[in-house]
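WARN retry 2 of 3 for item q-0093 after timeout on previous attempt; input resubmitted unchanged.
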Amino acid sequence: MTKMSSRKIAVGGRAKARAPKTSLLIGADKLTEQQAKAEHEWLTGELKKHSDAYYAKDAPTISDAEYDALRSRYRQVEERFPELVDLFSESYQVGASPARGFKKVRHAIPMLSLENAFAENDVVEFVNGIRRFLKLDGQEIDFSAEPKIDGLSMSLRYEGGELVTAATRGDGAEGEDVTANIRTLEDVPQKLRGRNIPDICEVRGEVYMTKKAFLALNERQEAAGDTIFANPRNSAAGSLRQKDPTITASRPLGFFAYAWGEMSAMPKGTQSGMIDWFERCGFKTNPLTKLCHSVEELIAFHHSIEEERSELDYDIDGVVYKVDRIDWQERLGFVSRRPRWAVAHKFPAERAMTVLRDIEIQVGRTGSFTPVGKLEPVGVGGVIVQNVTLHNEDYIRGIGNKGEVLREGRDIRIGDTVVIQRAGDVIPQVVDVIIDKRPKSAKEFHLPKKCPCPLHTDVVRGATAAGEEESRSRCTGEFACPYQKIEHLKLFVSRRAFDIDGLGEKQLQYFFDEGFVKEPADIFTLEKRNSKLKLEEIEGYGETSVRNLFGAIESRRKIALERFIYALGMRHVGETTGLALARGYGSWDAFHDASLKVAKGDEEAIAEMDALDQIGDTVIKSIADYFGESHNRGIVERLTKEVEIVDAEKPKSNSAVAGKTVVFTGSLEKMTRDEAKATAERLGAKVSGSVSKKTDLVVAGPGAGSKLAEANKHGVKVLTEDEWLTLIGE
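OK item q-0093 returned
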């Protein structure tokens, strides 16, 4: 469900709210770079918002299926456009930042999330991908399969067999210390049973509440006039986050153990063996867990659990498959902070019919216009859906991105009865239009020809990098357009950029409208100017809140280079690109000087930037356009006087290849290309797809061609696969 902002713009004589920046209703494989960039930015914000609501506040605003579908679409976009991925991508994020009020606990080993599979073909591809990665020809792969509990992830740390710390997942790297509350759960042993317990043992699993206990709790809450929980998962999380452990103790919570974190020694060599070991240590494990030996058995298990789902006394939203052999899990490793060796097979989507009441427009940061459908609220699987993205004017008319016919040519009109779906590629999405129910009063929708900003600039459809017409219309006002200016400022203060606490959208919009903040540097001069502004006299503020705001701003004067580059808001320069540029240049001065040269058409500077991994013509042109404008250079100059930009972090690994740029070419015989790349990155190396004079090593197998020739041309050291394995000690 999309939350609309309060700012309105006039379209067709009616007030229109700004809709999300997204092009969700076409396949990811058909997106242009511009569409992908805009959609990726919007999805990043949506996922952050909903993650915070779910993990930190225990008050989700959309269903799990909707959230999973947004994340699925996000992954599809990043797979199609890998330049959008970096360490700050939502693909690398797990959960949300720890809630305030609890001491923070740093996980010794991050608590990761899982990739989702929605269709049986996804499961087949998951298994085939493992076979390809490990180069398994016909060898049987065993999988441990278990129901996916809809609860609160928990990590329990035992030292010397005694429980010492219990922490929530939080953002995956850092969680909340809820040790006192966890000690009240009967399913969590205070001391591990048995012999030969590892000195350090982290047991991970899910805290949950049964459906029966949930209903009883809500009855008591209602009778006492207290908060009514939305579902068992929320009630479990709310119960566990009580400041008073006696309240937690009064609420029946369970715990299923199914994973581990830091272990000073591994008691077993398989996933299923570890589950048995957990049980012997005194933990409760899910009795439905099963060892499967083929993809057919995995799918059969999914069907059987789905049939049994309604009879279970706890909520599940799918099943989880894990490669059983732990040594294979270690070889498979991770991608985007998700294990390659596990996947969550979610239950299918649900559909509903409702009426499209209106179509509203949003002007995005890059000037793009996005129509959003306002629906007659409808319940779909317990979730109230009110908004749906309609992508662009062509889609509304029944035309796809490549001119193909959609919905058998049925257009979408205000007043139509539409079929919506809340899972799959896009959630929520319009699946179809019911023409038989179209009223005579149904109105066709036409995009405005002028931007509703004070400039009333033209709305145009530009060209893609390939010279094709964009599917999205755009305001031509650029940075002069106030709608785009405020969106740039919102990006600037966002979590993945400067992350200024207390300066949310409403506050920033107010400061912008009042003229207090017109560009980023103005944020850092607010305190100096406050003798005239007198923010503490503004309704809703006070001395304490203003002091806290100034403190939050002051704490963000130091920023990592990759965040700073991203915060500038250059088109096509997302978090992934920002990180690649930061790693490539190392410092702000180096990047700034290179950007100015690129803007002047310096061929050597352009070639140097083009040689960086994940940087291409589109990004280079965008950087040139940005730094080619004196207005933008002024914004940057004034901003850099107010902040300290920290050089890119060097790899922490002390391996022989840490910090080196490596290119793999030709056929590798002892490992797959993906495994080689994953190993190199794990050891702190940067893997590039092209050879330049800045490349440190080229690993060449049989059939190496142009890349080997380039290596010889630039005098880059070339290794065989065996020499590479010797170098990295494997």
